Amino acid sequence: MPLVKSALLTLALAALTPLFQGTLMAQTEAAPKQSSENAKIYIQPTLPEILSIMKAQNYNVELYEDTEVIAWFFADDHISLISTDKPTSLNFYTYVEGDEFTFEDANKWNRDYIYSKTYLDDDNDPALELDLDLTGGVTEARIISFLENCEDSFKAWIKEAS
What we know:
Elements: H1 2-30, E1 41-42, H2 47-56, E2 61-64, E3 69-73, E4 79-83, E5 89-95, H3 103-112, E6 117-120, E7 126-133, E8 138-139, H4 140-161
Antiparallel strand pairs: 1-8, 2-3, 3-4, 4-5, 5-7, 6-7
């Protein structure tokens, strides 16, 4: 009897598998390339596109075309950079000069704040980076969310790094 049950189960699975695959294929093929609001999907946003989004959010920014970065000016005259150096990510980078921030401080930050990373650069100055993965595309809302996360992370980090 166990052999019969096993054979029936195998036959049933074999018969149902194409049905499930067809359903999954139909769901996958029907998945829209745009959000339900028909928002534009950015696959590899250009710096002018990012600049436009940032200015619309009232960020104090300026495009430096010769270096291919956006300078982001914060209230305390600190400058951070936004770049698209890597084709699959949008990058935020900043640093401060100082020797009080230690490897232990960096390790603690990296344990507590998993969406950003901090380290001591080649000059032994603390640096902060955040990356937005662009694989598969992102909406403007996701870019804005990333920028807000950069701003919040910077404000928390600058207190510890300087």
